[in-house]
Amino acid sequence: MRFNKSLKLAVNILVHSKLRSWLTIIGIVIGIAAVVAIVSIGAGMQQNVESRLGGLGADIITISPGGGRASAGFRGGHGGGMPGTTATAATAENLTKKDVLVLQSVGGIEYIQGTVSGRGEMYYLGEKATISIDGVDPLVWKEMTTSELESGRLLGPSDYNVVVVGSRVAKDTFKQPLTLNRMITLEEKAFKVVGILKESGGFGGDDNKIIMPIKAARDTLEDVGSDEFDSITLKVANTDDVDQIMEEADKKLMISRHLTERGKDFSIRSAKSTQETMSDITQTMTLFLGAIAAVSLLVGAVGIANTMFTSVLEKTKEIGIMKSIGAKNSDIMMIFLLNSAIVGLVGGLLGICLGTGIASLLPLLGMRMMGMGREGMTTAVTPSLLFFALLISIGIGMAAGVIPAYRASKLKPVDALRYE
Amino acid sequence: MVSNLIKLENVWKIYQMGDVQVPALKGIDLEVKKGEFLAIAGVSGSGKSTMMNLIGCLDLPSKGKIFLGGDDIASFRESKLAQIRGQKIGFVFQQFNLIPTLTALENVMLPLEFQDVDTSTARKKALEILNLVGLGDRVHHLPSQLSGGQQQRVAISRALSVDPEIILADEPTGNLDSKTGEFIMDVLNKIHRKDSKTIIIVTHDFYLVKRAERVVFLKDGQVERIEHNHKEQGGEFA
User: Fold this and answer.
1) What is the CA radius of gyration of chain B?
2) What is the CATH number of the domain that holds B164?
């Protein structure tokens, strides 16, 4: 029998099938919709991460104390975080001016900046908050930062008791927003606000920080030695050289600090590698959630199989009739397999519509996920996701239909005809 | 009309019912000539339906040989049997056995489609036959929208669609009133005479039996006697 004829008969069975078949289809619809929605959330997160980390600059390499994958991750651009409180600071030696000198001998680097960072108590109009503080070399920072000014100016070379403030510190931390030329108190010292940064939104941005000249930071923060840094940031001249420069910098630091691979007490990473790590995390999460959604697909598949068994039983007499007028086993097999494939297809199509609908509604609900910044969750429904969802649903339909279809095809015509 | 189209040699059919073996046919020998109008008669349980199933390749004998056009069907695989059923045999059942979700036309086209005949040819052929049995204006009706007699005529059309050598009819009038049954028998008779097709009907209705050329009486799975009706030749009744 020709394929299109088998298809026609398979469609005929579905069209004339009872409510039960449609209930089965709903099982697949829900499964596929869940998978589509969840994977689109994952893809959205990934796009989000990529676009935000992209803002860090692909040409930036960060070196921070502490071995392996320790502290550098989320804080990205300015690494380190909290000296004195991180475990690494106690055991590992801080980065020093000597390291900066060593790094200067690595080719292809445009700028090198040593940063000290920490957290300090801040008073403003009678309110108190604990804020991250970065001490930077004003001249180099000006060149390297990806943050933009909203108002005021960046730090200048002769500045001392002045700060530039991240947008969230300025707007959200205190009841009264910080404005230009206000005086604030940090660790019992007075500073003047000379600049307020635009919101960057991403990881490792300066939104939650206060930036001041490094000299002032050394005098203000505790536990900061006079020639120590909490991180060293390199800006490479050519983005393509990032990996190679990272490798060279790593090697030179190891030698100058007299380290072996096991005793390594600093970590080196680029925006690119941070991005990759983050992508890994979101991917794993998507996979995990997708696996949960896949369980409902599995339930749907069992539903199809169940319906198909019943359907075959119901159609026993018709199978007998078809065999008596010349249908081969393979014809019967084809008809029933196509029938279950169509159940999968229809379920998949409806599921894709529902899943896409959910995916487009989720951001409107304004749900926030893991530090995605101030905007809501984003979702991304890609054509390839839809294509695979459809392929999977058809596949599930067929897989669930194989055994019932085989059984149907093996019925003895004389027995099938006698079935009432 | 001399060659044997069908030949049964010592055919046994034994059903296993739990531990008990129940023989339905016990050593049947029979020859059917091409173009013959044969009736298989007997009370229920005599084995006539079993015999029809065997001749129609719906089932295989437990013992013995069944030759269809010279080939022993007992040696055939299911796919080959399906092919024989589809090409050489047309079934007419007591219950009509139409596919309820297909229209009259689609039901008649179905055997042709199993034989990979292209749609337009199948359609033409099916319409032609349906017109012949007087259902030209009912082709798009579902079986449930047709009367019993009309359904049986659709079933006969379906049996004829592949132009088979043998028409096997199992109590073809069993579910019809006598007048409609008469009409159906006229249709079968016409097919027999006009196209000289071999027709075998299975029945317990003695009125139907008289319309066949030869009657095989079965009793307890064995041939009790064979009678010849010479109605066609000279109206002589046995």
Assistant:
1) 18
2) 3.40.50.300
